[in-house]
Each structure stands twice: as C-alpha cells, then as structure tokens.
Amino acid sequence: MQKIYVKAYGKINLGLDVLRKREDGYHDLRMIMQTVGIYDGIEIRRVKKSGIHIKCNVKSVPTDESNLVYKAAKLLMDEFNIIDGLEINIEKVIPVAAGMAGGSSDCAATLVGINRMFNIGLSETQLRERGVKLGADVPYCIMGGTALAEGIGEKLTKLSDAPSCKVLLVKPPIDVSTGFVYGNLKIDENTKHPDIDVMLKGIENNDYKAVSDNIGNVLESVTIPAYPIISEIKEDMLELGADNSLMSGSGPTVFGLFTDEDNIAQAYKVLSIKYPDAQIYVTELV
Ligand code: ATP
Predict the structure, then answer these.
(1) In which pathway does it act (predicted)?
(2) Mutate to test the pocket of ligand 1, among 96, 106, 132 (most ligand atoms within 8 A of CB)
(3) Which SS3 state, helix, strand or coil, does residue 173 take?
(4) Run of H or E residues at 211
(5) How far is the CA of 71 from the centre of ligand 1 (A)?
(6) Domain 166-284: assigned CATH number
(7) How far, in Å, CA of 200 to CA of 32, rounded?
(8) Predicted pLDDT of residue 236
(9) What is the 3-state secondary structure (H, E, C) of 199-236?
C-alpha cells in the first residue's frame, strides 16, 4: 500500500469525575467518553526521503518529534523494523488544546493506519497497549464510540451507544492548559461529583433525558472561575434551547445537547455572531 487515509474523530466527555490524586501525580478518573462527528484527516504516504515527515494545516501544531502522530509512527516503525520514508499530513478540524483529545485521536489514527498499511496484524487490544504509552486518552480514541474510562483513562469498558442527539460545539478563542486545570483541582468533601452511575443506567436504557439531565464535569470547578466565558457560553446554549450544556475535558470547549433541529440551527447562528472568533460546529454523537 502506497498511502492510507484515516479519520481521527474528536470526543466529548458526557461525564468526567475525578476520584482522587494518586501518589504518581496522576488522577484516578471515571469518565463517560463519547465520539462526535467532527474529525481530523490523517493521510500517510510512502516517500523516497527516509524518516517521518509531518505536515499540518494549523500553524500552532508542532510538526517535529513532539507531535503525537510522529511518536505513534516512530513507535510502530521501530518495533516492526519499517525503514520506509513516510509523509503524514494532518488536516486538523478538531480544535487544538480544546479538551476534545485532538492530538490523542490523531495519534490513535496513525497507529491504526500504519498497522493497516504495513499489514502488521496487531489487534485492537494490542494497539491500545501501545497507545497508552503515548497518552492516557489514546486507547479510548482507538476504541471510539461510547465508553466508560477509568484509572487514568486507560481502563475501558465499551458501552451501548448513547441516545442519539445533535451536538453544538463552541471552542472560545482561549487556550487552557490541561496541567493548570489538574494542578489546581482540589478533591475534598465539598466537591460536587457528577453521578456517573445514573448516567451509565441512562445509556443502558437508551434514556436520553437521564443522560442529558446528568452530564457533569468536575474540572469545571477549576476552569470556569479562571475563564468565565465558559459559563457564559453554557448559559447562552440553555437559553437557545439546548437540553443541557457542559465543558468537555479540561476545556475550554463547551458542548450543548439538542433534540430540536431548529433550535440548534438558530443557536449556531446566534453564537457565531456573538463569538466571531470561536470555532463552532454542529455535529452529532457517533
Ligand atoms: P485532551 O482532551 O486530551 O486534553 P486537548 O484537546 O486538550 O487534548 P490537543 O488538541 O491534543 O489538546 O493538543 C494539546 C497540545 O498537544 C497542543 O498544544 C500541541 O502542542 C500538542 N500536540 C501534539 N501533537 C498534536 C496533534 N497531532 N494535534 C494537536 N496538537 C498536538
């Protein structure tokens, strides 16, 4: 195979709970992960020039060894003695540093793409074992769909598809460091934890209201006070007819769940005018 194209889907967290800080500095999490319909395109091509050459349409994304796509390609090429030169073109659509696991998803798609292109024959489980070395969200991005993620995010349980709905994504033009958010998170008796178990039941019963009513993200307690625009966007969405709205991951992307097509179309219009520098998408759960 001379080239391959793989879609790298973005994710939102329908639920994100932090149970405790661990000795090793990581946090034990309990998250409901959900793929959404916007994706980056990853095209991998054999080229004459040896080495791994990354290209990306977004300037702020590094194209050197620090790119997770580079790391994914290198990991498999080293392990399976692949000596071909590769050019990997990342066509980004998923907002960068947004809480939507864009980099992790690109990384996952690269592992999947190289495995296929070179007929390596690794199973999904074997790819996930390699993915976790590159990032806690990478195994989930390989799996996709609706899943419960525990541990640091790598312990995955596949769930039935969440009840379908439309999703409005708004990424305001601010950068939020994931390190800042976890570094300033305090988990104590006052922490308001989302009810992940109720949401698991809701998903099992295909009960949209139970899911929509119970979305929650413990990281909002850090990100929102630092960036109040996030709660403003959440409120805007509710006023514009969202069934509920929440920050994804460590932010700053806000998502709104909608069942009414007219409402989401109108919300898209209104928020595009109010936040002209935001990245805004209408999509769905996939
Ligand atoms: P998460 O939801 O996992 O916290 P995120 O949406 O917050 O992810 P990313 O979009 O993955 O964040 O980007 C975080 C940083 O990672 C970027 O600022 C960028 O420098 C770096 N990075 C490395 N590889 C990539 C990639 N392929 N795409 C985007 N960013 C990348």
Answers:
(1) Isoprenoid biosynthesis; isopentenyl diphosphate biosynthesis via DXP pathway; isopentenyl diphosphate from 1-deoxy-D-xylulose 5-phosphate: step 3/6
(2) 96
(3) coil
(4) helix 208-214
(5) 13
(6) 3.30.70.890
(7) 8
(8) 98
(9) HHHHHHCCCHHHHHHHCEECCHHHHHHHCCHHHHHHHH
Give the three-state DSSP class for 110.
Answer: helix
Q: Is 192 helix (H, G, I), strand (E, B) or coil?
A: coil
- The SS3 of residue 85 is strand
Q: Residue 191's pLDDT is what?
A: 87
Ligand 1 centre distance from Cα of residue 78 (Å): 23
- The amino acid occupying position 128 is R
Please tell me the residue having the least CA distance from ligand 1 atom 24: 67
Cβ(162)–Cβ(285) below 8 Å:
yes
**Which CATH fold would you assign to the domain 3-158?**
Ribosomal Protein S5; domain 2 (3.30.230)
Residues ≥6 apart with Cβ < 8 Å to 199: 14, 15, 32, 210, 211, 214, 215
- Judged by phi (left if over 0) then psi (alpha if -120 to 50, else beta), residue 126 lies in alpha
C-alpha torsion sign, points 206, 166, 260, 258:
positive
**Bridge partners of residue 31, in order along the sequence:** 16, 149
What's the average pLDDT block by block, 10 residues per block, for the chain (286 residues)?
96 97 91 98 96 97 98 98 96 96 98 98 98 96 98 95 98 94 91 95 98 98 97 98 98 97 98 98 97
pLDDT of residue 120: 98
Helix axes 124-131, 102-117, angle to 10 degrees: 130
Would you list the domain boundaries of the chain?
3-158, 166-284
Distance between CA 112 and CA 142 in Å, rounded? 8
Residue 49: predicted pLDDT: 95
pLDDT at 43: 98
* ipTM reported for the complex, 2 dp: 0.92
